[in-house]
Amino acid sequence: MKNKGSLFDGFNYIFLTLVGCLMVFPLLHVLAKSFSSSQAINAGKVKLIPVDWTLTNYHVILGDSSIWRAFMVSVFITVVGTLINLILTASLAYPLSRPEYSMRKVVLIFILITMIFQAPLIPNYMVIKNLHLIDSLWALIIPSAISAYNLFIMRSFFVALPSELIDSARIDGAGELRTMWSVILPLSKPAMATMGLFYAVSHWNSYSSALYFINNRALYPLQLRLREIVLSNDLGQAGNLLENVNQISPAGVQMAVIVVSVVPIIIVYPFLQKYFIKGMLIGSIKA
User: Fold this and answer.
1) Inter-residue contact 83 to 89 (CB < 8 Å)
2) In CATH, which superfamily holds the domain spanning 56-285?
3) CA-based Rg of the chain, rounded to a whole angstrom?
């Protein structure tokens, strides 16, 4: 039995290593192109290692004010949106985790229905329009204030907390808000970090909502600006440089923008990894 287990573990290691390599190769290709010259890219010489190393592509995008503006818009949406997400999700998950609160099962059923049946685009657009949120960054934050999936994970974490701690806080005279702020949230760092990472990645990568609700190009987030560059070679100020500097490749600029858009999440993840793994394990053990 031990030999079979060791063989199975070895097969898993090999399989997961191959899957990991398959996922890393496209990233290496994008990174290599972003640091390669236009001649090497146009000749198809770039695979996984940069050819004719250059920083020209990054000079182009870092000198484009529209990309910096889009970057700051994405930062605002991600930071403010994630804070609102965490506050509202925790505020709803806590009462739904307590057995003494009536109607919690009915509310959970309605929330579950929203996961199965989602409103189509046109009703969503009409709601946003009637709320006068068209061409407003709040249109990218408020409609996604609470994710039903994340709510269930956070509720599972709250259910797993010892009820004796909550009873002790109530005996000491703490109200529900004080109990949640002083007892529940300090113990919920793994769950909050997990949900925060989920929400932040969702906000950072989202472009469809901006595509539907934002017409003002000054309010475009980074992903929508990236979409313009990838689909139409709209390089903004870089397009003016292309007429005079033949070392610049549209494909290289596109890859450089992709790298810039991915780097912030890669930087944040290592700091949350410990809490992220713990939060996912706790949320998966008890529902």
Assistant:
1) no
2) MetI-like (1.10.3720.10)
3) 24
Q: What is the model's pLDDT at position 245?
A: 45
Encode pLDDT of 171-225 as tens digits. 777 777 777 787 888 888 778 888 888 888 888 888 888 888 888 888 888 888 8
DSSP string, 102-150: TTHHHHHHHHHHHHHS---HHHHHHHHHHTT-TT-GGGGTGGGS--HHH
Collect the ranges in the chain with pLDDT lower than 70: 1-5, 230, 232-249, 272-287
Q: Looking up tokens 């004796």, which residue turns up?
A: 164
State the Cα–Cα distance between residues 241 and 58, nearest whole angstrom.
Answer: 13
Give the whole-angstrom CA distance, residue 98 versus residue 154.
Answer: 13
Exposed, middle or buried: residue 3 (CB in 10 Å: 0-12, 13-18, 19+)?
A: exposed
Q: Give the list of residues 6+ apart from residue 168 with CB closer than 8 angstroms, or none.
A: none
| Residue 82 near residue 196 (C-beta atoms within 8 A) | yes
Q: How remote is the C-alpha of 49 from its chain's centroid?
A: 28
State the pLDDT at residue 84.
93
Rounded to whole angstroms, how far apart are CA atoms 150 and 102? Answer: 22
Supply the DSSP symbol for 221.
Answer: -
Token pair belonging to 150? 């994340």
Which one-letter amino acid corresponds to residue 114? T
Q: pTM for the whole thing? A: 0.76
Residue 161 CB coordination number (10 Å): 17
Using the structure block, give the residue that is written with the tokens 């990472």: 197
Query: In angstroms, rounded to a whole number, what is the distance separating the alpha carbons of residues 250 and 244?
Result: 14
Q: Which residue has the tokens 């992220």?
A: 276
Residue linked to tokens 């965490």: 86
